Amino acid sequence: MALLKFKRPDLGVTVSPVQNGDLDWELSPFPREPLNSPSCYLAEEHPLTWASSKWNGVVDSSKHIFCNRSLNMKSIVAVGFDMDYTLAQYKPDTFEVLAYQGTVKKLVYNLGYPTDLLQWTFDWKYMIRGLVLDKRRGNVLKMDRHKYVKVAYHGFRELPREERMATYGNTLSREAYDEPDYALIDTLFSLAEAYLFAQLVEYRDSSPSKLPAKDIHSEDGMFVPSYAQIYKDVRSAVDLCHRDGTLKQAVSLDPGKYIHEDPLLVPMFKMLRDSGRMTFLVTNSLWDYTHVVMNYLCGKTGNEGVPRDDEWLSYFDLVITGSAKPAFFADSNRAPLFEVDIETGMLQNTDNGTPLMQVGGLGVGLETQKKKNSQHCRAFQGGGVAHLHKLLAIEAGAQVLYVGDHIYGDILRSKKQLGWRTMLVIPELESELELLKQNLKLQKEFRKFRRKREELEDLLQRAKWKLRLEHQNEEELLTRAKSLQQDRDSIRDLQRQTHKDLHQKFHSVWGQLMKTGYQNSRFAHQVERFACLYTSQVTNLCYYSPDKSFRTTEDFMPHELEFAEF
Fold it and tell me: pTM value?
């Protein structure tokens, strides 16, 4: 096993591997200046970063890092990153449209769907994360944290409350809303396939005979594909786009068209490394695409004036491509680990990270490979988390902070199975916070109407109760009950309209990302359960000390809110 020299900021030492028959470690102190010292962090001066001498201490609310589980960064030895949709934020108006168009073409030319689909367009603002696709019924659902369906559409037709309740509410057993009958839309990349699924649901309902029949499902004497088969075909088309490189080839030719630039990425890497942390990259993308994207993110566009090079590797201690997350995080993963020859992109065999002699004169020689390893960060393909732990000498999962965008692929597995600390990147949070700020007055009105409605309902129920038990002053009691009912109905209508207005301020169809009705949405519940930290952009780390202790807000039970002081 080839081990790496690394720093332990929590101990204030540099740890170096020493091989004298048996493996041992050599500890040497490295200087730690006070955090307020201008030279404490050696990252380039940048007026927007915490490490800059020009830092004014003010962080805009849209750049805040929010804490679900207290995390002291002094205990973190290594900070890891996903690449796609974490370091690389794709532009939905170009990249998602490209993905949508590529999927449609695969459906038509590879899976036998009608050419009508080629005329369809994609509204990239329509779907949001956290939705659930009902593959059996062709419905798109939004539910609260208790898995109660509060918004449901069949294709693009909203289900009336009665139909929604009959389908998902008034049942003898609760649905789990998981595979195989349901699909979770938990990544930004899934939004295009969810939209296409809704379009195909409507197309199947209006023109069933035009769709290829691949499963037995008889309607009016015709064989048409089920909604579940349609979803399966959409997923197959998406996979075809990934396998043939259609999307990545387009991005590689013009990264600026599809990926947002973020000038704070390099200062963030430098600040973390200058603070003594190791940094690593674990991505499902293969080396060639990773090399192009990371060059672009670090300012090397690949144009004539700014050619690509290997400088981006200097910001990492370890890079693992083709990781096949979430399987990468499983302890049982025995996938082989290959080392990437950075100059040629060729894969070299390794013995759990230790270079092996290439026989027959093939590949890069062992001594050449060892010399290269000493010059820069090493890059690998495949393997599993056990390889990463050994290469970085990680002693406990709690020493690692991993930053990703995928609740299941990045966050859930790494936290539950490994004990890693986690930070979830939610780009939509930035606009969500701005809308919350803009609509404070409407939120207060909604809560006021809700409280008033509850008061009137209590009075109305009391009046009706007295009518049943008391036979004196019946006319007076009846008049009062009618008056209270009118007032209650009026306030209820105001409350519903205010809630609808507030809902549409965030999204005309699905409402607030983190709310469903009065409750947190299922997506918000997952964020709260599995992400120690969450924020809108990965580079929001630039606005905080690398040694910051993130603390949660105080939890309140409903009975405590009666006495809570805010």
Answer: 0.84
